[in-house]
C-alpha cells in the first residue's frame, strides 16, 4: 500500500506492506535512525515520536495509521543551524543521558509532557515519563533536564 506521511516537515511517500510499523517506516523509508527499536512491546519507549503533536510509541502504530498525518522525530526538533531544541539542550546540560539509547524517546516524551504541562512538578515529570525506561541514569538527571527545560529552578 502507498503511505504518505509528513515527517519533520517533509513528505515521505512510500509503498509498504500493510503490516509495517511506524518505527520501521521512519528508520527504513525515511532514513531517520534516531527513533530506536527497543522492545517492540511498548514497554521501553525508545521509539517514542510525536504523531500530530501527541506522544506515541511508534512500535505500536502502523505506518498506514499515520498516513496523511504529521510525525516529528528527535531529528526534527532542533530549529536548525546547529542549535538544539530546549529539551535537547537541557538533557545535555543536566547530563540526562548516559548510553543514549533511550534518549531520543525520552526527549520526545518530555516535549509532549511539557506541551501538556509547561511547569510540571518533579513528581509530575516522573509520572509523565513512566512509560519510558532508562537502564543507566536512575532518572534523577532526566527529571532535572525536564524541570530545566520548563524554565524552573533545578534542585541539586
Which features characterize this protein?
alpha+beta, Ubiquitin-like (UB roll), DNA polymerase, domain 1, 2 domains, five-stranded mixed sheet, 6 helices, globular
Task: Please summarize what this structure is.
The chain is an alpha+beta fold and 156 residues long.
Topology:
Elements (H helix, E strand, L loop, with lengths): L1 E6 L2 E6 L6 H8 L18 E4 L2 E4 L5 H4 L3 E3 L13 H8 L9 H14 L5 H7 L11 H10 L7
Parallel strand pairs: 1-5
Antiparallel strand pairs: 1-2, 3-4, 3-5
Topology-level CATH name of the largest domain: Ubiquitin-like (UB roll)
N/C terminus separation: 52 Å
Radius of gyration computed on alpha carbons? 15 Å
- Average pLDDT over all residues: 95
Explain what this protein looks like in three dimensions.
- The chain is α+β, with helices and mostly antiparallel strands.
- The chain folds into 2 domains: 2-76, Ubiquitin-like (UB roll) (Roll); 86-149, Orthogonal Bundle (DNA polymerase, domain 1).
- It has 6 helices and 5 strands.
- The protein has helices spanning 22-29, 63-66, 86-93, 103-116, 122-128, 140-149; strands at 2-7, 10-15, 48-51, 54-57, 70-72.
- The longest helix is centred in the last third of the chain and has 14 residues, at 103-116.
- It is globular, with a radius of gyration of 15 Å.
- The N and C termini lie far apart (52 Å).
- The model has no long low-confidence stretch (mean pLDDT 95).
- Pathway: Alkaloid degradation; nicotine degradation.
- Keywords: 2Fe-2S, Iron, Iron-sulfur, Metal-binding, Oxidoreductase.
- Residues 1-77 form the 2Fe-2S ferredoxin-type domain.
- It comes from Amycolatopsis bartoniae.
Amino acid at each position: 500500500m502507498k503511505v504518505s506521511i509528513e515527517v519533520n516537515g517533509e513528505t515521505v511517500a512510500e509503498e509498504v506492506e500493510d503490516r509495517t510499523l511506524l518505527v520501521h517506516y521512519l528508520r527504513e523509508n525515511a532514513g531517520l535512525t534516531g527513533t530506536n527499536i527497543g522492545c517492540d512491546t511498548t514497554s521501553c519507549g525508545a521509539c517514542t515520536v510525536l504523531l500530530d503533536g501527541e506522544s506515541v510509541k511508534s512500535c505500536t502504530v502502523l505506518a498506514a495509521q499515520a498516513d496523511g498525518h504529521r510525525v516529528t522525530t528527535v531529528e526534527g526538533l532542533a530549529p536548525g543551524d546547529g542549535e538544539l531544541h530546549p529539551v535537547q539542550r537541557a538533557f545535555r546540560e543536566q547530563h540526562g543521558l548516559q548510553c543514549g539509547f533511550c534518549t531520543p524517546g525520552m526527549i520526545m516524551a518530555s516535549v509532549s509532557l511539557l506541551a501538556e504541562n509547561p511547569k510540571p512538578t518533579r513528581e509530575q515529570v516522573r509520572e509523565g515519563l513512566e512509560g519510558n525506561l532508562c537502564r543507566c541514569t536512575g532518572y534523577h538527571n532526566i527529571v532535572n533536564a525536564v524541570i530545566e527545560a520548563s524554565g524552573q529552578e533545578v534542585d541539586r
